[in-house]
Amino acid sequence: MIPNITLIIQGLAFFAVVLLVMKYLWPPIIAAIEDRQNKIAEGLSQAEKARKELADADARVAEEIKKARAEAAQIIDRAHQQAVQIVDKARQDAVVEATKQKAVAAADIEAQAHKAREELRGKVAALAIAGAEKILHREIDANAHKTLIDQLVAEL
Amino acid sequence: MASEEAGSANMTEYIQHHLHHLQWSIGDGALKINIDTLLFTLLTGLVFLFLLGRVSRRATSGVPGKLQCMIEMIVLFVDGLVKETFHGKSKLIAPLALTIFCLVFLMNFMDLVPVDLLPWLWASGHTLVGADPAHAYLRVVPTADLNTTLAMALTVFLLIQYFGVTSKGAGHFFGEFVSAPFHASGPLGKIVLAVPNLILRLIEEAVRPISLSLRLFGNMYAGELIFILIAVLTLGASLAHFSTWVLGGAQIIAGFAWLAFHILIITLQAFIFMMLTIVYLSMAVESH
């Protein structure tokens, strides 16, 4: 029970084991543990980042879809307006053309009527002269009475 | 191990035989070495170094194996305790705590080996080579030898002084011997209080290695002794006696109960030795 020389041997042996553990055995193990802890922490933060990025991408996609939809609506609206404009213009053109055609036709009719009237007037004059000849039984010198006849024609 | 006639003299002889170290005498017999203590310390130390070295050499930060997981659990447990308790920076203290915990646990664990098994094998070996088995002494629990526990406690004691000197500086460190725990303001008070301070400090320093070593030694020695006493229940008994059957039953129950309880004790004592070492070292670094 009384300590003997074993004490010194045990003390030196114990201290040697402690030094051995401190120098060679402890560092690799604790390094591996800390390395793994870092890896895990890194993995977790990366997963978190990926999750955030995915959420961001989703938001961006939604935004893009909304924008595209708005643009499409705008395009359709503009096309609609254009169509209305084209139809309007066509209608106006048609009206203008019709008016022009009507005017041409009216002028034509007027001209025809005028011509017919002139013809009729000439014929009436001739008829009047023939009638007057018959009435007077005498030949009227056309040249001598030209002034008179023209006057008559103008009066008609 | 059982002799022909049962008796108290026989029991005493059995117990004394069990508590006798295998010793070598050097010179005229004044210097003795406990060979069995050294042998089993070497054995447990090699187991510890082998397991730790194996893991250390193949330590991977990837997926660890089962052995690495086990070692890492212990390492993290010790490292956590050290980080919680010891606020200085030291490369020594965590490996020291790990070594103490594992080594003390393994040495204590030798107590769980059936108390007669290894001594019986040792005695049988003696008989086999023609030596006298009566002189085949063997104690298998290194921590039940005061030499081992005192050696560790003294190593820790020296480390405490070393940490104290290096972290505080020699002036501050030795100044504390006479200026703490009682602080005085005037020069007269300082001189008056120097003596009680010094006495208290010396007692405090002396008590630490003694309590540290005796606590572990006492627990393991008592544990071993109780195993021996349980073994004595059927010492030299004959199967023809009714009492043998009663005592045999009692022996099995008592043996099992003490073994189960002892698992707690050996772990707890290893933990206490380690924890107190960390606490003492952190106290040595911190100022009073």
Description:
The complex is a heterodimer of chains A (156) and B (288). Chain A is mostly helical and 156 residues long. Chain A has helices spanning 6-136, 146-155. Chain A has one domain (3-112). The longest helix of chain A is centred in the middle third of the chain and has 131 residues, at 6-136. Chain B has one domain. Helix content of chain B is 72%, strand content 3%. The N and C termini of chain B lie far apart (56 Å). The mean pLDDT of chain B is 87. At the A-B interface, α1 of A face β2, α2, α3, α4 and α6 of B.
Supply the key terms.
heterodimer, A: 156 residues, mainly alpha, 2 helices, 90% helix, 0% strand, B: 288 residues, two-stranded antiparallel ribbon, 9 helices, 2 strands
Distance between the termini of chain A: 174 Å
Query: What is the average per-residue confidence, as pLDDT of chain A, rounded to a whole number?
Result: 89
Instruction: Determine the strand fraction of chain B and express it as a percent band.
Output: under 5%
Radius of gyration of chain B (CA) equals: 24 Å
Determine the N-to-C terminus distance of chain B: 56 Å
- Give me the count of strands of chain A: 0
Write the layout of secondary structure elements.
The complex is a heterodimer of chains A (156) and B (288).
Chain A: H1 6-136, H2 146-155
Chain B: H1 8-18, E1 23-26, E2 31-34, H2 35-57, H3 66-85, H4 93-109, H5 117-128, H6 146-168, H7 170-179, H8 187-232, H9 242-285
Antiparallel strand pairs in B: 1-2
Produce a short descriptive summary.
The complex is a heterodimer of chains A (156) and B (288). Chain A is mostly helical and 156 residues long. Chain A is 90% helix and 0% strand.
